[in-house]
Amino acid sequence: MSHPFLDRLKTFGDTEAVVFEGRSHGYDELLRLVDDWRGFLDRHQVAAGEVVTLEGAYSPQACAGLLALIERGAVVVPLSAIPGAKRAEFLDVAQVEVVIEVDANGGGHRAERTGREATHELYGQLCATGHPGLVLFSSGTTGRSKASVLDFEKVLGRYGAPTRPGRILSFLSLDHIGGVNTLLHTLSQGGTVITVAERTPDSVFRAVDEHRVEILPTTPTFLNMVLISGAHERHATDSLRLVTYGTEPMPLQTLQRLAKALPGVRLKQTYGLSELGILPTRSRGDDTLWVKLGDSGFDHRIVDNVLWIRSEMAMLGYLNAPAPFDEEGYFNTQDVVEVDGDWVRILGRNSEIINVGGEKVYPSEVESVLLQLDNIAEATVSGRPSPVTGMVVKATVQLVEDEDRRDVTRRVREFCAQRLEPYKVPALVEIAAAPLHSDRYKKIRSLA
Amino acid sequence: MLTTTDITATVHERINALLKEDGKPVRLLTGDEPLARIGLSSLLLARLIIELEAEFGADPFEEDYVISDVRTVGALADAYVETLANLAAAAA
Questions:
Q1: Is residue A392 in a domain?
Q2: B38–chain A Cβ distance below 8 A for any pair
Q3: Which of A69, A264, A301, A312 has the fewest CB atoms within 10 Å of its CB?
Q4: Cα separations (Å) of B8 from A117, A133, A386, B62, B77?
């Protein structure tokens, strides 16, 4: 019952597939791990169509687990380390039937049935095709994350015959469309995925040096930190031929400095959404933000300066929200763009969303946490520009009784840190003297 | 008007307060330390700049400076020293 994707991987023999903790693992070894996973899934009676989490850090075991679940026809919900309340929400929204925790060293994977039954209509659609599925979460306006359901066969269908195997560093984890795309695209080509334990400039550039990385997918915030750290000067970068950046707007000054710091390396903007996949792109030059969006499997149009995209591998829909496709199948990205002939320049979201170093934050999620705090009557959350992360989260609160601003800030930070991911915790807390008058922003405690 | 010493001391103090809050070791800073090697993540560095703006009433990175050019703790403090001196000169 081997999947054609795995059949292709067999042809790569003992070529290096994944480098993890500095150790190389060949395709043959990866496929042996997949075989171990087959036995594990059999023992736990995981069947086609079942909704299964895959939880754990990036590792060859996690990669093999993903491949085994695809082969089995399961619907995979990859999760990385997230706060307990968020994980519970994700399991609930995705109607997860089996949770699997990956042991990076193998042998100790855990599987447990949740007692839930996945009955969502989108799962029914997937089941009817017999295809494996992928569920990815993105921030939602109501504070609850939106869950996109993708047909894994369509994701895999994007990858053509092996032409140019590359050595690529995996920057994003497997719960992100970019991380899934990096892994599967690289493996489809017989290339090598190099993983790093931590995403600091020095550990990434050490891996570039030691493992001869050719392609480095990143974010603008990370590249900012690279330039500040000078990590690119302490490690050899002669193997690098392409640095890609995406997930947030790139400051032109950072890009221009990067082009000088890494001469001879092509710099390319990427564009992708978990709802649509990663578009093929071509940058007009290494020091410009103008980009051409590819049309292989995708097409786009611009309506009132907003980018709409149609994708062959688009999600079937959200599990918990209406899908913003028009009648012709174009998806409203909400990204405002400038146009110059075939070139577009992406200016950022035309919405309340706050993009902190590539991570998306909806104000309402943070506001609803703030309103659980004592002495806060109203809360407004907005984005505030930052030269480091593009934006940071700013909270403006109205108090019930007077309180020292430093005490309020400390309480807000401590409370939010226990309930939200670090990038969602307000970097700045201001106290409003008067009630917060705004239809959208105003929040009353009783509504929280 | 704040002196160079005052401004530098405030920058060092704010860095250490953030490191302490993040559970990282606090250290005596000389200014020579590479900014990326004292334990500040991108989120903490973003907060540092916001807190220093609140403290000094000026943000050097709004116009004159680019953060990716700043390599050391001393260079960061100098950006504030020069920005505040320019503001004082313009107001005089």
A1: yes
A2: no
A3: A264
A4: 60, 55, 21, 20, 5
Contacts of B35 in chain A (CB under 8 A): 228-229
Given A156, A187, A211, the domain boundary residue is A156
Complex ipTM tops 0.85: yes
Does A311 map to a domain?
A: no
From A124, A156, A188, the end of a domain falls on A156
Residues of chain B positioned with their CB less than 8 A from the CB of A201: 36
Domain of residue A359, CATH code = 3.30.300.30
Handedness of CA A163, A167, A168, A173 (dihedral sign): positive
- Write the pLDDT tens digit of every residue in A377-408: 889 999 999 999 999 999 999 998 999 988 99
Task: Report the gap between the CA of B71 and the closest CA in chain A (Å).
Answer: 5
> Which pair of tokens denotes residue B74?
């001393």
Q: Which of A261, A189, A192 is nearest to A223 (CA)?
A: A261
Contact status, residue A179 vs residue A173, Cβ threshold 8 Å:
yes
Residue A165: strand pairing partners: none
The count of structural domains within chain A is 2
Asked whether the beta carbons of A63 and A94 are under 8 A apart, the reply is no
What are the pLDDT digits (tens) for A249-262?
888 888 999 999 99
How far apart are alpha carbons A279 and A294 in whole angstroms?
Answer: 6
Give the C-alpha separation, A38 to A32, whole Å: 10
Report all structural domains of chain B as residue ranges with CATH numbers, in order of start: 4-91 (1.10.1200.10)
Single out the residue of A8, A60, A355, A334 nearest to residue A183, CA to CA. A60
